[in-house]
Fold this sequence. Notes:
Pfam families: PDDEXK_2. The chain is of the alpha/beta class. Helix content is 51%, strand content 13%.
Amino acid sequence: MKEFISLKIDYAFKLIFGKEGNEAILIAFLNAALKLPQESRIEEITIINPELNKEYPEDKKSILDVRAITSQGMQINIEIQLSNQYDMEKRSLYYWAQMYSRQIREGMAYKELTKTVSINIVDFNYLKQTSNYHNVFHLYEDEEKFQLTDVLEIHFMELPKLLAKWRRREISLWENELVRWLLLLEGADNQEILQILEEIAMKDPVLYQAMNAWEETSEDPRIREAYFDRRKAILDEKAAIREAELRLQEALEEGMAKGIAEGRAKGIAEGKAEGKAEGRAEGRAEGRAEVAKKLLVLGFEITKIAEATGLSEEEISGLKD
């Protein structure tokens, strides 16, 4: 049985979708993802950052995204994330802003700035408001919902939601091209998906090219070594984040229980309902502070600790002393 490397690891994803010579694969994925009308479909594309950090693939802080520009000037950034760091929307906006602002040259008119698209493929449930696996965001007016401009476009593609829909047979690899490309990322872990993709590839030359490139890449010993280094770094980070989530939940539950108990005691003593609420709040605050201290020890950034615990960055900085 063939042993494929997982395309959910950004290093492997970039080897297939962000490598010079594989532009046809990237174009097929983007045309499926962006749902462009026939007359506006991408026909030519240039990969801006085809290089890979071969020396430090295990560096989990390095960014192995895919950046490209179409022949029409549209800028595109694709990033894949395995673990929820609770900053994806801000992270995506930041990278979008970087790509958009890089277009500026001296003497250039603002109207010359072109559309910039950020695509986030995530291996976790992220948007709680919807069961859709693919969601697209633009700039709209709050009340009448008309679009201010089309230059900003941000996509979130959630693999767990997609996989769940496929397992319920609500979607088909044969009928939906985007489903096909996204489930390619699940192929290393799902033999049924892999088999269906191999059948489709016999009728889809670009998918056939992608499958061949994936197989050849998976068999290269040097690539496999770099891949497993990168995979270990990413999974270690994912485990650390999960541990922090569990610690946070445990601390909040302990803090809430303590707060309720202290609040009841204080409320009985003072004969006031405020005592119960105050004690509960104090308990929650103590629980969050305890979790923040543990996350500091684990080396998490203050901004991420603030998002996870609800404490301010100043409060967290004070815990260092």
